[in-house]
Design goal:
Structural class: alpha/beta
Oligomer: single chain
Low-confidence stretches: none
Distance between the termini: 53 Å
Strand order of the largest sheet: 3-2-1-4-5-6
Order of helices and strands: EHEEHEHEHEHEHEH
């Protein structure tokens, strides 16, 4: 049984943490009040101190006007917001007395981890990028029936840390998914391409519906 902490237990993080709590000891922290029957909600100091693994599941929001609700091809490209991720990393650095295994699951653009996040994390910690392919309306089902599980390492090699994470997931899975190991950048790209493909399909169906009405 692993000792896991979730920084960010909102719409995504809480459901994911509760799924993990069925097999592991899980704590959760959020800047907003949360409750759970299976996840121990605590302050950040306890979470970092008592957890071996720390999952960062905080929002990386679009800039205003870039949520896809209106055309944006004529607008200047803008990155996601990273303030919450940076704050979470800083909290881990501030409270960790020993080495932690840090896993970022938030969606970011390719190159963001290597360019912005890894330089902020104390070198004594280990890091993986592990984005989820999950729909907000079916988080718990998607969590245990994923199409695949992506794990990003610095060089794309399946190292011991990646294998430990696979061992955490395996007891929870219901569909025996495949595990894809790549670089941080490759996993960031796959997640973005996957989201873009899904958005394109939804947009096409909505357009067909508009014509049919």
């Amino acid at each position: 049984m692993a000792k896991i902490g979730f920084i960010g237990i909102g719409k995504l993080g809480l459901d994911c943490a509760e799924v993990m709590a069925e097999k592991h000891e899980v704590r959760g922290y959020d800047i907003y009040p949360r409750t759970s029957d299976s996840v121990k909600v605590c302050d950040i100091a306890e979470l970092v101190d008592e957890s071996e693994w720390i999952f960062i599941a905080v929002p990386t929001p679009h800039a205003e006007g870039y949520d896809g609700s209106v055309p944006s091809s004529h607008m200047d490209p803008k990155d996601f917001g990273h303030d919450a991720v940076i704050d979470a990393i800083n909290k881990v650095n501030a409270h960790a007395k020993t080495s932690k295994k840090v896993v970022l699951i938030s969606t970011v653009l390719p190159g963001t981890t290597r360019r912005k996040f890894i330089t902020l994390l104390d070198p004594k910690h280990q890091f993986l990028y592990n984005p989820y392919l999950i729909a907000m309306g079916s988080v718990k089902w998607d969590m245990i029936n994923p199409e695949m599980i992506m794990i990003g390492t610095a060089d794309g090699n399946p190292n011991a840390l990646a294998q430990e994470l696979i061992d955490i997931y395996r007891p929870m899975m219901k569909n025996n998914p495949r595990y894809e190991i790549g670089t941080w950048d490759e996993c960031e790209a796959i997640k973005i391409f996957y989201n873009t493909f899904i958005s394109a399909k939804v947009g096409l169906v909505n357009m067909i519906q508009d014509f049919a009405m």
